[in-house]
Design brief:
Structural class: mainly alpha
Number of helices: 11
Number of strands: 2
Strand order of the largest sheet: 1-2
Radius of gyration: 38 Å
Helix content: over 70%
Distance between the termini: 82 Å
Order of helices and strands: HEEHHHHHHHHHH
Shape: elongated
Strand content: under 5%
Largest sheet: 2 strands, antiparallel
Length: 265
């Protein structure tokens, strides 16, 4: 509505100016380089107006020519990025479908087209894992640690690799690093509890169990059972140290929390 109103205002101004010129025709004479031009004021103003329009069009044309190389380069970059994102998306689909060869090809293509390693490192790592190249996958996961936005995903990949290889020391080290980044992430808290407990680090296991509780990752019943498991291990340690009364208290509490837990009973 406002645009229409402005259009009619401009039209009214032009009409008023035209009427004003018609009522005041006047004559103009111009002598230049031996030539003499006689004309009316209206024709002179029209000529000036047309020259202004021609000058504006010429300026825009020259500006467009000046920007053309940059526009072409930007267009090529945009096309390259679009193809890169397409390859990245298709690669993720190939990983989900369990097609290792297709995932590898698309990861390579996305890597080549996209100058954004954070977007392609995970795909490359997953493609390497699908192809059974755990060493290459580890290199990609380690490279992810160098970037803040991908460090957590890289740690999860390294934890899973270490657990798969049976290297619990390495898995524990990477899980602790993941805890430092995102302590209340459910998989971090649960994995850390299991690893700390298996390594006999009861204090670390207790801290991890507190994280499990605060993250609401488990039901209350499951949390009680894990608490009972921890108390049982603490009881074993106290028994080994000859502290029978303290051990009995720990074990009774474990039995109360999880009556079906045989080691506590």
């Amino acid at each position: 509505m406002r645009a229409i109103l402005f259009f009619f205002i401009k039209l009214a101004i032009v009409i008023a100016a035209a009427i004003w010129l018609v009522e005041r025709p006047g004559r103009v004479s111009v002598e230049w380089l031996g030539y003499r031009i006689d004309s009316s004021v209206g024709v002179l103003l029209l000529a000036v107006f047309l020259l202004m329009i021609a000058g504006t069009l010429l300026y825009r044309f020259l500006a467009t020519l000046r920007r053309a190389p940059g526009s072409i380069r930007q267009g090529l970059r945009d096309g390259r990025r679009e193809r890169g994102y397409l390859a990245l998306t298709q690669g993720m689909v190939a990983v989900a479908a369990g097609d290792p060869e297709e995932a590898r090809k698309l990861a390579t293509r996305a890597n080549r087209l996209l100058d954004e390693p954070p977007l392609t490192l995970l795909l490359s790592a997953q493609a390497a894992q699908l192809n059974g190249d755990e060493a290459a996958a580890e290199r990609y996961f380690l490279a992810m640690l160098e970037r803040e936005e991908t460090a957590f995903l890289g740690l999860r990949g390294l934890v899973n690799q270490a657990l798969k290889a049976g290297d619990e020391d390495k898995a524990l080290r990477y899980t602790r690093q993941a805890r430092d980044l995102r302590p209340e992430t459910p998989w971090v808290a649960q994995t850390l509890f299991d690893l700390e407990l298996r390594h006999g680090r009861l204090e670390g296991a207790a801290e991890a169990l507190a994280l499990v509780k605060s993250s609401n990752a488990l039901s209350h019943a499951e949390w009680k059972r894990r608490r009972a498991v921890l108390l049982t291990e603490e009881g074993r340690t106290l028994l080994a140290a000859g502290k029978n009364d303290e051990a009995a208290a720990k074990l009774r509490e474990a039995n109360r929390l999880a009556p079906t837990l045989t080691p506590a009973a």
